[in-house]
Amino acid sequence: MSLVRRPSGGGPGRVGSADGGPVLTRNSSLNGLTEEVIKGATQRFDVEIVFKFTWVNKGLTRMSGLERCINLVELNLSNNQITKIEGLEGLAQLRRLQLCSNKLTRLEPAQCFTGLTRLESLALQDNRLGPGLDALGLQELGAALPGLRALYLQHLDRTGSNPVCRAEGYKPALLAALPGLCNLDGERSPGSLNYAELAAEYDAFRTAPPARKPVVLPDPAPWLAGVSLELPAGGGAAEAEVQQRHGKAVKSLDECEMLVHVLREESARFRQQLADKKTAQA
């Protein structure tokens, strides 16, 4: 993007600077912007080399002091007290404009968007635009903003909406006025899918879900159905080996039982001897 330079010379509210360039006088209202404020916030010595400016939550009520920001590409004045879009006539390089959470009630495209032919994104959520579609000036909006590709009057989840968003025919009217729009309220390709209708259908489903249908599951067949648990009749060497191992196991158990019996007798004899010894000592 080539840097635009404003020709020298005075104008309303401006006087010539030492180098011939115009500067703003200091009689701007305190509730608007001044050239000094913009230079201080952006750390630039000249507002003509300011490409991005953000001034949010500052109590701003007027859009002023931007006349010489002729190379501004992005402007964010959200969360202020602005009631009218103005002072943008010379910002021919502006691509993105954010004015969310202000006090805008109407758009007058022929006046407020004059010269903004390169504007691509306009964010106006959480204002007071409406209640009717006439508040948007749709007949002039498309001609004033031929390059507009993204327009936000509410968030994708429909929070931060303007009253106009609830007007009948809101979406079709905007798409008709702005045929080049690629993003409306966060909906990409808004002409292909109706996200608002899908969201309303989802909300209705959550509010009144359909009755649950009973699910009948068949009884599962037993895992060992048809399997005989009886041991087959043995024979030969395998049966002889089983018999031999069984005999050894029985013999070992008998020996253990005899050992336990002997231990019990020895323990009883020891306890008796201990008792006799204690009696003799007493």
**Sheet bearing the most strands, described?**
7 strands, mixed
Q: Which topology of the largest domain does CATH recognise?
A: Leucine-rich repeat, LRR (right-handed beta-alpha superhelix)
The fraction of residues in strands falls at 5-15%
- Helical content class: 25-40%
Give the CATH H-level superfamily of the largest domain. Answer: Ribonuclease Inhibitor
What is this entry, summarized?
This protein has 282 residues and is α/β, with parallel strands linked by helices. The protein has helices at residues 35-42, 109-112, 138-144, 170-177, 195-207, 236-281; strands spanning 14-16, 22-24, 52-54, 74-76, 96-98, 121-123, 150-152, 183-184, 187-188.
Structure commentary:
The protein is α/β, with parallel strands linked by helices and 282 residues long. The chain folds into two domains: 14-196, Leucine-rich repeat, LRR (right-handed beta-alpha superhelix) (Alpha-Beta Horseshoe), CATH 3.80.10; 241-277. It is 30% helix and 9% strand. The chain has six helices and nine strands. It has helices spanning 35-42, 109-112, 138-144, 170-177, 195-207, 236-281; strands at 14-16, 22-24, 52-54, 74-76, 96-98, 121-123, 150-152, 183-184, 187-188. It has a seven-stranded mixed beta sheet with strand order 3-4-5-6-7-8-9. A two-stranded antiparallel sheet has the order 1-2. The longest helix is centred in the C-terminal third of the chain and has 46 residues, at 236-281. It is elongated, with a radius of gyration of 44 Å. It holds the Pfam family LRR_8. One of its GO terms (cellular component) is axoneme. Keywords: Leucine-rich repeat, Repeat.
